[in-house]
């Protein structure tokens, strides 16, 4: 049976369509699919890094919140301005109930500065890198008050999964006075205290350069 001359080209085109895709079409489809798969796979490492960063930030925020809120609750009970204006007494009350190691080891800003300049090992609890980072936070008090800034904290060489406290943390306690306030317990005007905290989920030798810094200022709230 012969095809009509007008229908022969149309039938040939139909047979070519029914025969499948050409090699060029298949190659283009594979290239497009491969590009999409590469883009999808690239999202996985980014999402994993984001997840790790979020967990790290959450742990740091939880630790900072625990410390700062505990201090706030403790110092809210101070109703004697002489006690409030004595930084040693204030800090003794402020840290009550905090289950954090190394609270009794305090260092002045001058000690940190000396360690950063003259030592490769830093202080007992802090490496030279940490002391260098610490003194970069400027004090807002006059230089006359040499002990107006104190540091507390620790560095551990390894992570303990059973210890809820971060392996590294640095707490900066600053006593904010004005010359008009006077010094010590004889002043009628109360000091202010600024507590700044930074922690890291990593052990030494990594330090706090990329970690979130938290701070809170404390005022004397007692009214007669």
Give the domain tally: 1
Q: Quaternary state, please?
A: single chain
Total strand segments: 5
What is the H/E string? HHHHEHHEEEE
How many helix segments? 6
Radius of gyration: 32 Å
Shape: elongated
Helix fraction, binned, reads: 40-55%
List the keywords:
224 residues; single chain; five-stranded antiparallel sheet; 42% helix; alpha+beta; 6 helices
Task: Report a brief summary of the structure.
With 224 residues, the protein is an alpha+beta fold. It is built from 6 helices and 5 strands. 24% of the residues are buried.
Textual characterization of the structure:
With 224 residues, the chain is of the alpha+beta class. Helices cover 42% and strands 15% of the residues. It has helices at 8-18, 23-75, 81-84, 87-94, 109-118, 128-134, and strands at residues 107-108, 149-155, 168-176, 192-200, 213-218. It has a five-stranded antiparallel sheet with strand order 1-2-3-4-5. Helix 5 packs across helix 6. The radius of gyration is 32 Å and the shape is elongated.
List strands and helices in order, with pairings.
Blueprint: H1 8-18, H2 23-75, H3 81-84, H4 87-94, E1 107-108, H5 109-118, H6 128-134, E2 149-155, E3 168-176, E4 192-200, E5 213-218
Antiparallel strand pairs: 1-2, 2-3, 3-4, 4-5
């Amino acid at each position: 049976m012969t095809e009509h001359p007008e229908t022969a080209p149309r039938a040939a085109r139909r047979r070519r369509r029914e025969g499948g895709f050409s090699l060029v079409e298949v190659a283009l489809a594979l290239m497009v699919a491969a590009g999409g798969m590469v883009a999808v796979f690239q999202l996985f490492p980014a999402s994993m890094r984001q997840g790790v960063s979020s967990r790290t930030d959450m742990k740091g925020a939880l630790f900072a919140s625990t410390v700062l809120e505990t201090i706030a609750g403790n110092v809210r009970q101070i109703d004697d301005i002489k006690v409030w204006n004595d930084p040693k007494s204030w800090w003794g009350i402020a840290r009550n109930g905090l289950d954090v190691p190394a609270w009794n080891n305090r260092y002045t800003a001058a000690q940190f500065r000396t360690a950063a300049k003259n030592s490769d090992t830093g202080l007992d609890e802090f490496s030279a890198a940490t002391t260098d980072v610490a003194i970069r936070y400027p004090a807002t008090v006059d230089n006359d008050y040499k002990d107006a800034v104190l540091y507390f904290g620790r560095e551990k060489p390894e992570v303990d999964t059973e210890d809820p406290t971060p392996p590294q943390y640095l707490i900066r306690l600053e006593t904010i006075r004005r010359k008009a306030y006077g010094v010590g317990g004889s002043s009628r005007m109360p000091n202010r205290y600024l507590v700044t905290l930074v922690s890291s989920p990593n052990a030494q030798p990594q330090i706090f350069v990329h970690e979130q810094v938290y701070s809170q200022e404390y005022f004397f709230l007692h009214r007669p």
